[in-house]
User: Fold this.
Amino acid sequence: MTLFLEDTTIKLRCMNCGVLSERDALELCTVGPTARASGLALDVRTDAPYAAYGDIEVKPILPDVYADAIKGDVYDRIVVRLFEVVDSVRIIRDLMDQMPAGGRCSGRQNTRRSLPPAKRRRVRPSDGWRPPPW
Assistant:
């Protein structure tokens, strides 16, 4: 990750490019990594936890975890996304540690729909892609 973030080409192309200030991000109602890259510590997982997010530690990641200042540029958005991937792995590991022992599946064992082989194909020689029948 450091190799990518310290790359000269990445820095030249992304720093001070596409700047979205904290004020503009708030006025434009941005959410997610874009809002956090502009300095807004907004995260629906902590502001209004749903599913299991109320039981696990989640903190909004801002670009200042890596850089000195928050500029709201493309580079800051990259930093937020990269560190969120690392944090997602941490969350998954925490959830796996909390998972009760036992089998992996409960209830239905076969979750794949059984379709005849002809209906499994999505592309035929005479036509393009088509959506699944379900």
User: Anything to note?
Assistant: The helical segments are 2-5, 8-14, 22-27, 32-37, 44-47, 74-98, 117-120. The longest helix spans residues 74-98.
